[in-house]
Amino acid sequence: MPLDTYDKIMMLAKRRGFIYPSFEIYGGVAGFYDYGPLGSRLKLNIENLWRSFYILKDNCIEISTPTITLYEVLNASGHVDEFTDLTVDCKKCNQSYKVEDIINNISVDEAIKENKIKCPNCKTNLKDAYPINLMFSTKIGFGKVRDAFLRPETAQGIFIDFHLLYRYVREKLPFGVIQVGRGYRNEVSPRQGIIRLREFSMAEAEVFIDPENKTHPNFNKIKNLEIKLFDNIKEMKISVEKAVDKNVINNQALAYYMILTQEFLYSAGVDPEKFRFRKHSDNELAHYATECWDAELFSERFGWIECVGIADRSAYDLQSHIDSSGKDMYALRKYEEPKIVDVKKIIPKMNELGPLFKGNAGKIKSILENLEMEDSKKITINFDGKEVEIPNNCYEIVETKEKKIGDKFVPHVIEPSYGIDRILYCIIEHSFFEGKEKDEEYKILKLNPKIAPIKVGVLPLTNDDRLVSIACELDDNLRNAGIETYYDDGGSIGRRYARMDEVGTPFCITIDHDSIKDNSVTIRDRDTTKQIRKKIDELIPFLKEKIDN
RNA sequence: GCGGAUAUGAUCUAGUGGUUAUGAUAGUGGCUUCCCAAGCCACUUGCCCGGGUUCAAAUCCCGGUAUCCGCACCA
Questions:
Q1: Bases on strand B under 7 Å from any protein CB
Q2: What is the pLDDT of residue A405?
Q3: In this structure, what CATH number is given to the domain that contains residue A499?
Q4: Pair type for strands A531-535 and A520-525
Q5: Is there a single domain that holds both residue A152 and residue A118?
């Protein structure tokens, strides 16, 4: 079978130090890959380019939170329940099954209870189904431990710091918070190499906005840019403004981050012909999302791959953490003028509550105080999973006037979430070109200079000591100026160019015999192989400009 | 997770129940003094793991692991 693009890229990636299978000497484990010297550099450059879009262009703030995440956080977010598959073990032959795999269309509870399910292997009745979670679990501490997971997304770390961050930005919406880091999912069946990993890198932004004002301050700057949309039938290119006006995209904020994503991906070297946004249909929306667009990149082997998800998560996450932690995570929409409003308040009488509820009286007091006053005369609260009626001698209802300066509300969240590994793979694939040069297969990685791991190859034409010493000094100077170089004096000049082309180095500087006389060198452009001559003194500003373009 | 295929240096690959396991590419050192994978010399790295059959297994059988394809699941 002939090698396809994926095979060729993974071979090149391994040979040249981009990507290696992890733990290979012990047989390897599916879903884990190492980034080699060039791969980690490339990844870092992509992440930093991403940061420049979010921190510089969009004024987001960045935080960094633990990858080990407390059980309570992921329970509140729904991951403990959502990331679960029901499993059952055969008591006789010890085989484990995912329940979904062995029953069809009957209720799980019923089927298990009624002993309807037999082990496909040894035909014993199966019972006691239990859920297994797709998160990696761990424990914190020894002895008295707390349950935890490796985080399946970086987002929760941002949500649970909301109140602090809201204060940091001096209580103004909208604001965006980013986090770049690793996430972990114990995939059932990871394949597709680096496209589906069990430990992967993501870059996420959580942008908090007022649900009654889903605009974006920079929208005017980008409204005329054209965005590439796919509605599951055909592709279209329309201006961002039109997309929002026609309600193809629900709101400005969502549209703004979509175009920011498009610009980032183009800037990182994605082929515009192999890029589109696809809208999630209603039945594939996550339970918390009201609208979601995936940026998809095309890959020869895998087809369209979801590399970025941009979701309107509404108030789901913050509300969940408010409910479950009790922390105040509201934002305030201030009135022009403070208002005086009538409020009804419940004042608990502790001298009655105390004797009646003993140790629980304190908790009941705070529940009562936070209760929304209704008109009904009976007050029942939900305490410890039970409905508890509070006798009316235990509290007093007072009507007072209060000054209100605004409305409290739970901000909505627009979440652009980027799979860095997937993007990295697609960029390599989109940059990969090959041809034949005198019967020799020739491979070029046309990486954008901004993200190329090595910017400049420094090559003395011959091993003449005079050329070598000029080259070494130049190499040193370029590095001190912050330009990553690769010095190479081995083999023929053609071979050295080829080596640099294969790892995506955009420029090669050759020091030849004329350099000794007039301090000039040639700069070869990777994509055209054209050479120009420059004085060594002019080199650094010239290259810097080319690299930053 | 189910079914099928595959597994030989860093990469690709030949090979057979029986000496020291091919060849190429890449890499390293040297010669060559050279502008697009030139040549010459020398050198480095390998039969996925475990068990079985056998006098003898990289080769045959079983199990595991990984990779690829299909199904299922998922982002």
A1: 1-2, 10-12, 26-29, 31-39, 48-49, 64-69, 71-75
A2: 86
A3: 3.40.50.800
A4: antiparallel
A5: no
